[in-house]
């Protein structure tokens, strides 16, 4: 309880500092109550503790509705479809529903707001997350929480295998995984997500590093490009040849993480946001043996995703957009982003990753891995479409086929035809 109190006080003080940089006038005659819809998250809990200072400095009242992810989606479906104005600020997932919301004009264009205050500094936000919160060249959200894919590995197993450093390339990863599996019969050389839909996001970094993407520059399906075929064959083959015995093809992060934290795998590629599952002694049998490294380079270099898991936007039908922006400007300020990061929430601003304060709570090798990821990171980890779930089922099928030993190239051709049909239907 004392720790929570101290953290809350600290966040409030930093929040007050951040307000000195906040500009943007409110709407003339608009409500002094800003209605904010947020999801259950550490970020949300931190913001709620700091709200009294926001209210004191602005004279505004922050009215927060906090919901689970499913409830949040249900509320947005009902209220946004109905053109409701009783939501001002929206916490949303840019890569899950962002394109749908933007296409349906649920999100206000923030082009003028992000340029209005130089001290707030929109240029400080990383390129990948900004790409994901931009629609048709216009910013429609501000990223607040980021994720990158990194390589988790077992330091002790590398040392035992005579490997002086974690693999820097995908070729090195393949060789190291095979070597360790051959020497350690009860340990997989590599583990990762295998489920048709669940694996897509983590497979994406392999796809980009081989030089591919889900669509080409003209918006056409590209999951049967030569680069994509190589990526499918590599990912599936790595799990088939060096993965756990009798590997399941429906694993999401929790199942793959469990194999790694039980000491049953040497390498694991996954979102950095989940790292505490591997380093917490209460959750991991190998907590003191885990290391982190940048995503290994493929033929096109190391190109992991660098995405915003969540962002803040303004309901286009809000009648209180000026005051809604005041909240977003405060909540995403440099000071508030730093406070969030110090509590373990990875921020989207470059400045928090170059600040000793900002990186003090993260493992040193994780900070280095993230720095490498943000440098050339790609701003999406799944197809950028409206019907995201359906698209993942299509482009994820070749992953499963490759894991089970089927022809990855033929599976990619089949998936590409289905994905192009999907894109054509969505474009109508």
TrEMBL record:
Q: Which UniProt keywords apply?
A: Signal
Q: Record's superkingdom?
A: Bacteria
PROSITE patterns in UniProt: PROKAR_LIPOPROTEIN
What is the residue range of the signal peptide feature? 1-21
* Record-linked Pfam families: SBP_bac_1
Full protein name: ABC transporter substrate-binding protein
- Species, as recorded: Nonomuraea guangzhouensis
* Organism ancestry: Bacteria, Bacillati, Actinomycetota, Actinomycetes, Streptosporangiales
